[in-house]
Structure formats: structure tokens, C-alpha cells
Amino acid sequence: MTVLVESGVDAGAVWHYGDPFGEQKALAAGLAGVDLSHRPVFTIAGPDRLSWLHAITSADFAHLTPGMPLNAYILNPQAHLQHGFAATDDGERLWCHTEPGRAEALLAWLRKMVFAAKVEISEPLADSVVAMPPGGVPQVVPAADAEALLGEIRAGTWAAEAMRIASGLPRIFLDTDERTMPNELANPDGDALGPAVHLNKGCYPGQEAVARTFNMGRPPRRLTVLHLDGSADQLPPVGADVTTVDGEVVGRMGTSDRHYEWGPIGLALLKRTVEVEAPLGVDGIAAAQQVLVDPEVGRHFRAAK
User: What is the total count of domains within the chain?
Assistant: First the structure.
């Protein structure tokens, strides 16, 4: 049985294949592949592609080697997230993918920044798709090769989203808003700002604000995992207010899902000053915090587990 996502940005993707929690277990064990062909794919070719992207994005494209996946952010001067995409270079071109519904705006921005750079940016491709092989990371492959790459055991987006949320990995444009800075987000590896944000390179848009917040600590908000009351029938909507028990609005709800071990969980951006032990609520559902970003020093500190 194949059940599709009916609404939202992932509409049309496979939600599950009939056993959502079994699919999560298989995915966690590195045994299942995930079809992500609803994500738009494009390429960037030309001899200047890496140096050009190194200058205009947050990531270190100068040292990118063929076959190594990389995530990149495009920020405004205040370091607020404007666009995001993943890329892998094959030695001749970058194979990129971004969130559903975001390709048109991203490609328009990239084309405005070309100037004299020798780069060629494609339109979204119909003959290449995103697939996550068992135990691997999402990658762009020819559509004809996707079935073999995914393997015999499949997991739907329910499983993929639940595992992502549990790992504290935010999904740009869903777990973020127009004010989000990279410093507010979690980095599961605990190393500086992670591979999507480079602190020791030239002045890309927003770099000064990112570095200043990193050096001084204390970003305005912090990403957290919320453990939601499992007695509720519904999950809170993206963008819902997160409140204290007194009704004060202290954050913004992002994505949520039901995890096979933890029950309903979600990601939320909270004011830095919210006490880490404070009980919270969202859309009438009680919630407890699991700290991802230390409120005193920001993302570059990993709290002890």
C-alpha cells in the first residue's frame, strides 16, 4: 500500500508504504531508501562555478571535491536566510536540489548575481531526481537509475521527517522564517557553524553579522526539539505560536511528526531567554524542551547529552 502526501510542500510524495513506524526503524538502521523526486533539481556548470558560489553563498565551495555533498545558504546583509540548496560537484558541473516551490526564486537570484562569471545555470530538470539510498544522503541521479539506487526496502517522507526532526536538523523555510540566522539553528555535529556556513573566508552577504553573533554568542533565538503531549489527536501547524503556561508567545513552531520511539516531536525557534526547563504549549498541546542550541553561547556549543 502506497499512501501519498495530500497537502503542503511535499504534496504528491510518498508519505508511507503502509508501515510508517517499521519504515522509520528500517531507515534508522540504514536499510531503507527514500524517494525524494518531488524536490526540484538544477545544475550549475562553467569554469567559475565553485569560485563564484564561494563568493556569494555561506558555504566553502573553494575546497569542494567531486562527489562530496554540501549544503549552502544565501543570506541577506543582516544574515537572514533567503535561499538554501544542496550541491554535489562531478568535476564538470554541480548537481543541485532545493525545497519544493523554491527553485524559481532561487534560480532568479543566482542569475542576477552572475555578472562576468563563467557559469551556466540550467532550468529545473525533468530527467534527474533526488533519491536517498539506504544509509546514505540525498543525491541527484538520472531518473532511470533511481529505482536501483533506492533498493528493495522503502521508507516514505513520514519516516524521513521523523528521523530528521529527532536529529535536530532544520528544514529551511519550514523550521525557519524571514528573521532566521544560521547561528540560531542546530548543528548535530557540534563543529562551529557546520559545513553550510564558513567563518574564515571572504565577505559573502551576511558574513559580518554571522561572525559577530558567533564571536559574541547569544543569538536572538534558538532551535529546540519539542516533545509534544502524545494524548493530542493532531500535530501543531507550521508557524503556530509557542507559548508559556501564562500564555506569553515565546517562539514559532516548525515541523512536527510522530516518531516510532519518542512519540510526537517537533522543532521550534524559541526566544533565547526562555528557560530551558520551562514547560511550553503550542496550539493547545503541552510541550517540553530538548536543548539543541545553548542559550548563552549559541550554535557553536554542543550541550552535554
Answer: 2
